Amino acid sequence: MDGARTFPRDFLWGSATASYQIEGAAAEDGRTPSIWDTYARTPGRVRNGDTGDIATDHYHRWREDVALMADLGLGAYRFSLAWPRIQPTGRGPAVQKGLDFYRRLVDELLAKGIKPVATLYHWDLPQEIEDGGGWPERVTAERFAEYAALAADALGDRVTTWTTLNEPWCSAFLGYGSGVHAPGRTDPVAALRAAHHLNLAHGMAVEALRDRLPTGGQCSVTLNIHHVRPLTDDPADADAVRRIDALANRVFTGPMLQGEYPEDLLKDTATLTDWSFVRDGDLRQINQPLDFLGVNYYTPTLVSEAGSTGSHTSDGHGNSSHSPWPAADKVAFHQPPGDTTAMGWAVDPTGLYDLLRRLASDFPRLPLVITENGAAFDDYAGPDGQVNDPGRIAYLRGHLAAVHQAIADGADVRGYFLWSLLDNFEWAHGYSKRFGTVYVDYPTGTRIPKASARWYSEVARTGVLPGA
């Protein structure tokens, strides 16, 4: 039996959500449609025709949700701002009613002793900006910087920790490559253009935040770094890893953290584009000093050269005949071994450990924060009204043990945000997948903390991970 593990005294314990997944109030107080409103309302895009029109109604139940966080002893809450709630057309002055919602939310968090961590963009681009070309166009990065300035001017006196983008890989490659995320486009060149302009938006936003935040304000970005493993020790499989690592990870870490795009990425994609959309000065602007790197991890990625031995499966990013991996048609994806979650994702904490060790080695002076980690299971409320989710507790215990071991082995990990606080709208899966540690009965909106919420609460309060 493993013994208890104690985390550093100042380790930050929190939970996370995203605006479109929980807020609802899709047309209230000046909010206009985002690309996810449009996508969800398009027949066949989202399971069961679900939308985020109501979601978990956090826009009206925010006080109840903050009380839940306080009851669970969370030290921090990572949430995202809805761009179309603050700046409905993506241009011009802010809507004060939209900003007031976030002011009230942040004030309540601070009153309860919970640190607010604000993400500027978690995928809900104003539809009007997409109508003008969206992320494949440079103007979107410029608009994003203006939006970042509005948000910082309004909330910078209350919020000291900011994240520019959440998982830009999903925005670029699932939104514009495979089309399984909004806006649902399927153009590999547009996906690469979107990746660059997301990088540029990040750099511009950090500049805007730095100009406005008080001394001590922190800036970060959250990346879903793929931990890519080869199926075999064949050199061809190692090259498959290299290709996917470039498209999944280094397309962002290269410009953001090192000021350059990887040469192998440019070479691999040369048949698609000459990257002439990268202008002089872009890479300097993208390469902004950060206070920490946000890391989202759920499961490892297993690849081989296409046609090698082993069952070829989906890459885990939705059903589409279009690939999210430009110029990587010679790569096959495989199901990693072991138990799986309700998403069909392999449960493998060693992937998180290996990932943290790699990041600590590649970027030794950059602190890390786990900004998302969690699992979906087929949860239900029993006859006694309780929701028991032992699979999620086991998942969290294993992954927190991996984080603890990574810290012991030299990784500078400063915090952990569990995904997610609430069951919510899970993008193209609608309401069919439950990631929350708090169960939501969607017809009534009733919140029921699951067994995992109480378990995680004890870990967050004590900083001690109990033995298995």
From TrEMBL:
Known EC number: 3.2.1.21
One Gene Ontology MF term: beta-glucosidase activity
Annotated substrate binding sites: 21, 122, 166, 298, 419, 426-427
UniProt KW keywords: Carbohydrate metabolism, Cellulose degradation, Glycosidase, Hydrolase, Polysaccharide degradation
Biological processes annotated in GO: cellulose catabolic process
Coiled-coil ranges from the UniProt annotation: none
Active site: residue positions: 167 (proton donor), 372 (nucleophile)
Extent of Low complexity compositional bias: 307-323
Enzyme class: hydrolase
The protein, known as: Beta-glucosidase
Taxonomic source organism: Streptomyces chartreusis
